[in-house]
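Field log, afternoon session.

UNIT: design team B
ACTIVITY: writing a sequence onto a fixed backbone
BACKBONE:
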C-alpha cells in the first residue's frame, strides 16, 4: 500500500503544477514553495478511499482558477472613445469607468442620446465639447437670458459649483460672466460693503448695463433704470466673474435667479442681444500628464486611469501599462492576482492534509 500511496501523492503534485501554470501570473512566485512543501508531505497509512475526496476537491479548485479571467480588470480601448448624439466623447472625458482622466470621472452621462454633465450644483446639457480650445458649452434650462427672465424668491437655476478636488481640472472660462438677479441686501456678495457693491463689475465687456436693455425685462414687468451698480441697495443685477467668488450657488447667495453669457469672438457683440448665453467651462490637465498621454498614444495605446488608485494608465488592449505600450516591464498589476494567491494557499492546504 505504501508505494501506491507515494505514487498517488506524486500524481497530486503533478496536478498542482499544471493548475498553477494555468492560473494568473501573480500566483507563480509561490509555485516553488508549494511544490517544495508538497514533496515533504508525510506519508501516512491513509487508504486510497480517503485520498480520493481530497483529490476531487483539488481538481475542482483548479477548474475554477482556470475559468476565472486574469485580465478582468482591463478596459477595452474601443469603448473609451464614444459618441452621445452628435457629440464625440474622448480623452480626458469618458462615459465608461477607467477611461479618460481621473479628474473627469463620474462627470458625463449619455441619457437618451443627450450628453449631460453632473456637478453638486445640478445637471447641465452639454451643447459642445471643443477639444482644440479645451472648452465645454453648457446649458441650464432654468437660467435667464435676453428673451426671458426666470426668477423666484427661493432662487432659480443651478449656478455653478464644482467639487474642491475637481476644481484644478474644471472651471468657468475667464470670459464668462454670471449675472446674478434679485440678490438680497443680506447676500454674502455685499457683506462688509453694503453700499459699494465691490464684486459687481463688467466681465469681458459684458455687464448689467447692457443686460438691462434686453426685451425680457419688458415681459418681466420691471425694467431697471439708471447706472447698473448705482446707489440702489441691493442692485437689481450684479455681474461677476467666476474668479471673484469661486462658486455660483444661487440660493446660498440669496439671489432669485441668474444668467450667464460668454464671448469667444475677438469682436465684442453690440448689446446683450448678441451675447452667447450659456456657461463656457474651460478644462485643464496636469503638466505631467501631457507627456504621459503623448507617449501612450504614440505607441498605439489609449490614455485612461486606474479606477482604484486614480493613477494614469496606458490601455494597450488586453493589458495595461503605467508608461506606454512598448514597455511591457511597466505592466500594471492585475487585481486578479490576489484571488489566485488565495486559491494557491487552498491547494497547499489540501495537499498538506493528505
Amino acid at each position: 500500500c505504501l508505494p501506491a500511496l507515494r505514487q498517488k501523492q506524486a500524481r497530486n503534485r503533478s496536478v498542482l503544477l499544471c493548475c498553477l501554470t494555468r492560473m494568473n501570473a501573480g500566483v507563480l512566485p509561490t509555485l516553488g514553495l508549494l511544490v517544495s512543501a508538497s514533496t515533504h508531505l508525510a506519508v501516512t497509512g491513509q487508504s486510497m478511499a480517503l485520498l480520493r475526496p481530497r483529490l476531487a476537491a483539488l481538481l475542482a479548485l483548479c477548474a475554477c482558477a482556470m475559468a476565472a479571467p486574469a485580465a478582468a480588470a482591463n478596459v477595452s480601448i474601443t469603448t473609451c472613445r464614444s459618441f452621445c448624439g452628435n457629440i464625440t466623447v474622448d480623452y480626458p472625458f469618458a462615459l465608461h469607468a477607467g477611461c479618460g482622466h481621473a479628474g473627469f470621472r463620474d462627470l458625463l452621462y449619455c441619457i437618451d442620446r443627450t450628453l449631460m454633465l453632473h456637478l453638486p450644483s445640478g445637471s447641465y446639457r452639454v451643447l459642445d465639447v471643443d477639444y482644440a480650445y479645451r472648452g465645454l458649452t453648457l446649458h441650464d434650462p432654468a437660467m435667464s437670458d435676453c428673451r426671458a427672465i426666470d426668477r423666484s424668491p427661493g432662487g432659480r437655476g443651478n449656478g455653478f459649483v464644482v467639487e474642491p478636488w475637481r476644481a484644478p481640472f474644471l472651471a468657468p472660462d475667464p470670459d464668462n460672466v454670471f449675472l446674478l438677479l434679485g440678490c438680497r441686501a443680506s447676500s454674502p456678495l455685499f457683506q462688509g460693503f453694503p453700499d459699494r457693491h465691490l464684486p459687481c463689475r463688467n466681465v469681458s465687456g459684458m455687464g448689467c448695463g447692457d443686460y438691462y436693455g434686453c426685451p425680457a425685462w419688458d415681459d418681466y414687468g420691471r425694467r431697471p433704470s439708471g447706472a447698473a451698480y448705482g446707489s440702489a441697495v441691493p442692485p437689481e443685477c450684479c455681474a461677476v466673474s467666476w474668479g471673484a467668488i469661486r462658486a455660483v450657488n444661487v440660493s446660498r447667495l440669496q439671489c432669485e435667479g441668474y444668467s450667464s453669457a460668454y464671448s469667444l469672438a475677438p469682436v465684442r457683440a453690440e448689446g446683450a442681444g448678441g451675447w452667447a448665453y450659456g456657461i463656457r467651462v474651460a478644462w485643464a490637465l496636469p503638466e505631467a500628464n501631457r507627456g504621459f498621454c503623448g507617449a501612450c498614444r504614440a505607441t498605439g495605446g489609449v490614455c485612461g486611469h486606474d479606477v482604484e488608485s486614480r493613477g494614469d494608465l496606458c490601455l494597450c488592449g488586453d493589458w495595461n501599462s503605467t508608461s506606454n505600450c512598448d514597455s511591457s516591464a511597466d505592466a500594471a498589476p492585475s487585481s486578479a492576482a490576489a484571488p489566485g494567491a488565495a486559491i494557491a494557499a487552498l491547494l497547499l492546504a489540501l495537499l498538506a492534509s493528505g
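LOG NOTE: The CA atoms of residues 49 and 227 lie 99 Å apart.
NEXT ACTIVITY: expression trials, pending approval
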